[in-house]
Amino acid sequence: MTPGEHTRAVHHRTAEPLLQRPLTPPVHRSTTFAFSSAQEMAEVFAGAPGWSYSRTDNPTAVGFARAVADLEGAEAGDAQSSGTAAATAVLLALTEAGSHVVAPREVYGGTWALLVHQLARFGVTTTFADYADPEAVRAALTPRTALVWAEVLSNPTMAVADLPALAVTAHEAGLPLVVDATFASPAMCRPLEHGADLVVHSATKYLGGHSDATGGVVVGGAELVARVRRVRVDTGAALAPDEAALMLRGLHTLPLRVARQCATALEVARALEAHPAVERVDHPGLASHRDHAVAVRLLDEGRYGAVLMVTPRGGREAGLAMVDRLQLVARATSLGGTASKAVHIATTTHRQLSPEARAAGGIGESSVRLSVGLEDPADLVADLVRALDGL
User: Fold this and answer.
1) Given the residues 138, 190, 205, 369, the one annotated as active site
2) How far is it, in rounded angstroms, from Cα 134 to Cα 279?
3) Mean pLDDT calculated for residue range 311-317
4) Contact status, residue 336 vs residue 204, Cβ threshold 8 Å
5) What is the DSSP string of 296-312?
6) 144-158, pLDDT tens digit by residue?
């Protein structure tokens, strides 16, 4: 008996099982997976290897997380729907009501908002310490401290965390060190090699690398990552398979892209530092940067980051005018993509902070964050110098 047209439309023939390995991993867009028996289904739901539902785990997303774990030298990894989702999962996994967190004074604004606006509602308190002073970090610890949070490179001042020293401080107190490595990527620094216990990435940036996919990932030891995964499953912050596939593609060229972007950024930073309209350039590859010595010791040789903060003379209006005069560099947020981008910091990424708070973090009212892409260095310098001339 021939099945009806509706049955045939749903249950059609598929290609033969693959005998040859595809060079590009397949994208598993299915939300759910069928089992050969009720017993097999029960075993997978009880924890046996297998796939049941993509909110729990999807093969493409798991493949991406494992690839990042390999790049970082980690035992395990878990993919998340965004970098903020990854940070949320880690903080929820490691804290409870009444916990305390130590974080850098220059912490990323999204993490600051998560700690101050969300976790604080559940009794989690945070001390934002000056990470340039190791004793300030140690003094911030309390009996309720649950973790020490750090960033390899801060946004946007590019302060460099002394990860080995922070790891000693955290571990002496019996605490995990969690490091946001978004601004570095494993092509510049692998925090686990320096004592970190968990590493967080907004994969939207350098890992994906093409400004066309949003995601996050957490890597580290299997036990800690399993706790983070449990939060991700319960909160539903699953990475979509198409996003995971785009990020897997991005990983293939990560070291090539990052090496070029870092070299170009240093060339741009040196050119802008010499411009008379510029008060200050913050980039750890410059000898003038506060943390240059730490950067030389911590970061892969010659790769000091592809972001710099330019502070022109003349106050807020000068910063806005500089951004408006750019012709090649895009007026856009985010970083790590192939195209260079610029934002006026005080009115965009750090607008939620008061002028006093921005100043305490080293951000001027005129400061502009520049994320360097893959364009020719001479073209970028010409565009930026043209924007600065006449300020």
Assistant:
1) 205
2) 28
3) 97
4) yes
5) HHHSPTT---SEEEEEE
6) 999 999 999 999 999
